[in-house]
Amino acid sequence: MADQKDDIALSVQNIHKSFGDKVVHRGVSFELHENEILGLFGGSGSGKSVILRSIIGLEHPDQGKIMFEGQDLTQLTERQLFEVRTHISYVFQNGALFDSLTVEDNLAYPLRAHAVLTESEIREKVQEMLQLVDMPKASKLLPAELSGGMQKRAGLARAIILQPRIVLFDEPTAGLDPVNTQRLLKNILDFKKRGMTGIFVTHDIPSAFEICDRIAILNEGKIDRVMTVDEMKKSNDPLVKSFTTGAHIR
After folding, report:
1. 169-224 residue pLDDT tens
2. Interhelix angle for 103-114 vs 119-132, to 10°?
3. Domain holding 53: CATH number?
4. Structural domain of 245
5. Calpha distance 126→141 (Å, rounded)
6. Which letter does DSSP use for residue 188 in this model?
């Protein structure tokens, strides 16, 4: 994990967000360092996914900045955000594959949209990614023919195929049985060893402890605590313990 201040991959600064009368964020601030995975904990409805969606431009904060590579993402046009999304990718909770496309074409989609490659090079890259997520024979299958775990691993492969600077994980293990959870975590850890930087939103505390370097706790609209996984495991702080004991989940 990077620990130098000039090694910041993303900086969220004083984000405020309301939906009508419901105030979700009241000044959210945190920093994501290069080559770390930052876990984001919070109760249901605390706005964890809203933060991820704000980073990628699917939500627009009412106030504050999200700084990435010298630009404030909250001020970008949709066209500019299209370019940013080649550098910041999103792993959706359900895999979010295109139902009518094969696995191969799902993974090829971002390459065809953003990369200058021949069809042969695209197929080679897709097969390489499928090998990395333990799905080498799945290229011609449709999403409906995949198990839930395979859909999520295919979604992970598609999110990473452009080698983004940052990967945003939105409840990636939700709905998976223990065996498929471990398969997915192994894939994420393999990518982490290659230098992945990411934010991991989850209610799955054991998975977060396995994947993350630090944990940020979202509480009452702000980041209340940021600590390493070891610090969190050892903490006697009541708020922290409400997560580690499962009392705060759901």
Report:
1. 999 999 999 999 999 999 999 999 999 999 999 989 999 999 999 999 999 999 99
2. 120
3. 3.40.50.300
4. 1-87+199-250
5. 13
6. H
Are 8 and 31 a contacting pair, CB within 8 Å?
yes
Identify whether the C-beta of residue 15 lies closer than 8 Å to the C-beta of residue 66. Answer: yes
Q: Is residue 22 part of a domain?
A: yes
Exposure on the CB side of residue 34, measured as CA atoms within 13 A:
7
pLDDT in tens, 135-173: 999 999 999 999 989 999 999 999 999 999 999 999 999
| DSSP structural state of residue 29 | E
Total domain count, the chain: 1
**Residue 82 phi, psi dihedral angles, 5° rounding:** -55, -40
Residue 176 lies in a domain: no
Task: Report yes or no on 151 lying in a domain.
Answer: no
Residue 56 in any domain: the answer is yes
Helix, strand, coil proportions of the chain in percent (round to 5)? 40, 25, 35
Residue of 202, 200, 194, 225 whose CA lies nearest to 213? 200
* pTM (whole model) above 0.70: yes
